[in-house]
What does this fold into?
Amino acid sequence: MAKRGGFPGGMPGNMNNLMKQAQKMQRQMEEAQKELEEKEVTASAGGGAVEVTVSGKHEVTRVKLSEEVVDPEDIEMLEDLIMAATNEAFRQLDEISADSMSKITGGMGGLGGLPF
It folds into this structure.
């Protein structure tokens, strides 16, 4: 009479292979995250009048303003340009991150096509 539940000889081969693949993918994702944190992305707005640089850690590391965009009579426009450049830099960073993760998972979503 066969035992119910569990696997008498330990994990079956397929499950063991899946675990190894998952561990490998986790290591690759950790490496990709470290690489991403070291990147910087610069985006501009207003035809280059405002440039914002962000790090892979989602921190603004630099803001560069052209003299002609600094108008004490129109602070609102400057605020809008800074916001637009910052949002674009973060969008580019997210795109780089998604591309990096897609390479690891083979474009199969968060679990890389693992059948769970």
In short: Residues 112-116 have pLDDT under 50 and may be disordered. The chain is about 50% helix and 15% strand. The helical segments are 13-38, 75-105.
